Amino acid sequence: MDTGFINRIKGYAALFMAVMAAILLVPVDGYSSEREYPDVILDTRLEADVFSGGSLQAVFEKDGWMFYMLDIRDLTDREMACGHILPLAPSYSQYYVRYWDNGRLSMIVECVANLPVGIQTFFDENGNISEQVDYSKKFGKMSPQDILSILEREKVISLSDGRSRKVSASEFAFFFSLEYDDKTNIWLADINLDFEKEPEANPVSPFYRKYARYSIDGETGRILDVTYETRYEESEYDEVGAD
């Protein structure tokens, strides 16, 4: 069992729930069309046997999209799985999803990296929309895509090649995160500048990565501040004793 994969899914889910708790959600006045989401997600019904051999995790590719699923049947009464769906093509978008026991979607929301940015839709077990809330109405004039464009001009991400994102047959990762404070109307972007750096197989050598933290005005897009710091990173060698 890949505990790293499971912990990553749980970590993203916990972060997502924390963001939900911090943002006052705006109900949608009249339901929007569910077809604003990719067809490959809406048309996929999750089968229970995708979790084979007693595994709690499942990863599969469909029509150019990667599905990273976690079995949560032991944690909930009526839901089968939660997870993340990402395009193989360069993109900083992903979709956080949950599925009912019958394999139908119970919830979907678009995120940019870690941050929910679009309409979150809840479905009943028959596939009908039961509720929607809109994250986009909480942002100022600068949308999440505007912030990505600013960071691209700073050459710390790339919209064309998806730098700072990893999508593979075994795992996914974003090497930056976004936060928005609707009280101050300020965007914060925390970016791992050394995401390609790998630890040396030497337990006596500390492993560090450099990070940049941007503060951006949510009305004008002006960069208010950039700070840099070096952070210690845990690695698989941390538990290995020196000879």
Averaged pLDDT, please? 85
User: What is the makeup of the main sheet?
Assistant: 9 strands, antiparallel
- The helix content is 10-25%
What's the gyration radius in Å?
19 Å
Helix/strand/pairing category:
mainly beta
How many domain regions? 2
What does this structure look like?
This protein has helices at 3-22, 39-42, 144-153; strands at 26-27, 57-62, 65-71, 79-87, 93-100, 105-112, 115-116, 119-123, 129-134, 165-167, 172-174, 176-181, 186-192, 208-217, 223-232. A hairpin with a 5-residue loop joins strand 8 and strand 9 (129-134). With 243 residues, it is mainly beta. Strands 1, 2, 3, 4, 5, 6, 7, 8 and 9 form a nine-stranded antiparallel beta sheet that branches. It folds into two domains: 3-24 and 32-134, no CATH class; 144-233, no CATH class.
Any chance you could write out the topology, listing elements then pairs?
Elements: H1 3-22, E1 26-27, H2 39-42, E2 57-62, E3 65-71, E4 79-87, E5 93-100, E6 105-112, E7 115-116, E8 119-123, E9 129-134, H3 144-153, E10 165-167, E11 172-174, E12 176-181, E13 186-192, E14 208-217, E15 223-232
Antiparallel strand pairs: 1-9, 2-3, 3-4, 4-5, 5-6, 6-7, 6-8, 8-9, 10-11, 12-13, 13-14, 14-15
